[in-house]
Amino acid sequence: xxxxxxxxxxxxxxxxxxxxxTAIVALTAALTLAGLFLMLAHNATVALQFVGDRxxxxxxxxxxxxxxxxxxxxxxxxxLFGSVTYVGKNAAWKDFAQQVGDPQLLExxxxxxxxxxxxVRLRPELLAAPAMALAAKQVGEMPExxxxxxGAEWVRRLDDITRGLERGALAAGIAVALALILVxxxxxxxxxxxxxxxxxxMSRLGAxxxxxxxxxxxxxxxxxxxxxxxxLGLLYALQQAAASQISGVVFLPWxxxxxxxxxxxxxxxxxxxxALSRVxxxxxx
Amino acid sequence: MIxxxxxxxxxxxxxxLDSLSWQMNEGECVVFLGHSAxxxxxxxxLITHETQPTSGRVTVGTFRGGRLTRGQRALLRRTLxxxxxxxxxxxxxxxFENIALAVRIAGHSRDDEVIPRVMYALEQVGLQLKQAxxxxxLSAGERQxxxxxxxxxxxxxxxLADEPTxxxxxxxxxxxxxxxxxxxxxxxxxxxxxxxxxxxNGLPGRVLEIEDGHLxxxxxxxxxxxxxxxxxxxxxxxxxxxxxxxxxPPPDAAAPPTxxxx
Lengths: 285, 262
Fold this sequence. Notes:
By secondary structure, chain A is α+β, with helices and mostly antiparallel strands. Chain A has helices at 3-15, 17-53, 67-80, 89-100, 103-107, 129-140, 152-193, 196-204, 209-245, 254-283, and strands spanning 57-61, 82-87, 117-122, 145-149. Chain A has 10 helices and 4 strands; from the N terminus they run H-H-E-H-E-H-H-E-H-E-H-H-H-H. Chain A is elongated and about 100 Å long. Chain B is an alpha/beta fold. The radius of gyration of chain B is 18 Å and the shape is globular. Chain B starts with a strand and ends in a 31-residue tail after the last strand.
């Protein structure tokens, strides 16, 4: 790239402000919609991870389990499935009393009927419903264990929702990406077609394709850069507004934002190059 | 320099050129005179490789017929200076910048290479004082002179002019013809296509009349006698060793360029 190409790109940008502004507005609109989708997908992923991370398995112990047997069981479960927290009979009763809140109701119960339990926070690879079911089955067969609960139905539904969201996000993502490619390509193509006459004149004067194309490609990249930064600004404002109403709404990670700008610029470069090659073929016949 | 050997060009059913053969030597001036749709513009488009002959061969300098690559075609066009009836100046550039663009296209990117060449071309056409003007600020005659400056700035071996006075009133047309005569007098080969006999008569070269894609009859004017469009005798172009054809360097710029031009 030459200083002349940059100067030419800036000149074209200045002299054709109308076309450049139209291109930037159209690109900003398309990129904002695509970015909105990305932000929704990211927030859905974050929310599902948050819910998924709270999945745990509750292992109820038999009343006759000794302390050493319990410690041994804790060690085995920690090694096999994840972190384990012991909740004794008294602690369980305290939790229960706190949840019920009505002392008269609690007085009606003679003695603490709640078993001691172990709360197991499963490792990430064991969080899917089938893995949890298998883990629960294995734990249930251990002699110290009275019962195992992990909310099988809830876990299955959460998994279904996650899968559905992933598939939907993939399909919508492909559709949005295709729409974005078309919008960027056609927007840049229109700006190039609007400059058909100077392109034709330069071709008649003997300019090489590279000489003609470089300034226009640089201009398209400028426009995409401005549009992508503007759309990120809009998305940030939107996220801030949403976060003030709904807690936990987050902006795109910075790596995603950088990739977003990079993708917009790459698309503009590609769109401008393709559009220019078509125009050059047409005018230079 | 330019040779058409049995060249035909067909657009669908219409035969624009029919087995045309003619030749033009270095430094020569040739005028093609003919009515609209006689095939004159097709002839120029074949020389610039904007289109390909349906049959026959067009040779321009060392570019010998056939389909050129895009790079070769660009190179060919850089050896030609082309003047159009409608000027084809870039409206968003000053006169200086329009001419400078042709210099940069020819591969000269440094300002100290570009500026003297442009100033020399401006001086040749008498537009030094209009160098900062945009095309829409010029009269038609001035625009054509700017286009001529752009055509000669790289000192091409041959200048092609497509109806160069077509959009001009009489006085400007006379000025442009005088300018073309002078440029030719300094050594550039000149090929003009026109519908106007007074233009053909106002130029010093052979006149070839073209009618429905054929050469109508032998040329008139001061050029060598030919038969069937082919040159019959030797032709010694005036000033072939100097001037436009590339021998002498441009003089130093008469004035510094405008800011817009730099």
